[in-house]
Amino acid sequence: MDNSATTNFNWLCKHTWQRSAKNTSWCLLGCAIGDFGTILFFQFTKIPLPVLAIMTLAIINGLITSIILETVILMKQNLDFSKAFKTAMGMSLISMISMEIAMNLTDYLLTGGAILNWWIIPIMLIVGFITPWPYNYWRLKKFGVNCH
After folding, report:
1. 25 belongs to a structural domain
2. Selection from 7, 26, 6 nearest residue 146 by Cα
3. What pLDDT is recorded for position 146?
């Protein structure tokens, strides 16, 4: 087994960490819009739905809004819709899924789930950012692949 790719990988590139942080932040914004919006909708309307169902919808909506936001950003960088959509879907799906699961698991563990209040939101955002950031760094450094 060739370990040269593993041993030569540089985790200390400040430029790549900054670029991957920017990419991760855009992804987090998109995910948070759909995720928090869904949780707030059910919190305000008091529609009786199991916590797991609300959190599943929040994850799905977070993925959708993140893909929409990333597609729009890529289109503003002169990509046509089809290419922008495929890029948004392909390059960041693992990042978005890990981000969504981390955010909702944090909410569940700290509040019992599907509850947003003044103290949980920053924690969810921090966890949601930190979880996919190393993956985004690795992908950007190893393959030169990013979403924005």
Report:
1. no
2. 26
3. 59
Whether residue 21 is contained in a domain is answered as no
CA angle 108, 61, 31 (to 5 degrees): 75
Joined tokens for residue 120: 């949980």
Q: How many domains does the chain have?
A: 1
80-83 CB contacts, 8 Å cutoff, 24+ apart = none
For the chain, what's the residue count?
Answer: 148
- Give the list of residues 6+ apart from residue 96 with CB closer than 8 angstroms, or none: 27, 30, 31, 62, 63, 66, 67, 132
Asked whether the beta carbons of 131 and 31 are under 8 A apart, the reply is no
8-state DSSP, 114: S
According to DSSP, residue 62 is labeled H
Could you tell me if 85 and 51 are in contact, meaning their C-beta atoms sit under 8 angstroms apart? no
Separation of alpha carbons 88 and 73, rounded Å:
9
The tens digit of pLDDT for each residue in 37-58 reads 999 999 999 999 999 999 999 9
Q: What is the pLDDT of residues 26-40, one digit of tens each?
A: 999 999 999 999 999
Range of the domain at 106: 34-143
In a domain, 75, yes or no: yes
d(CA 2, CA 4): 6
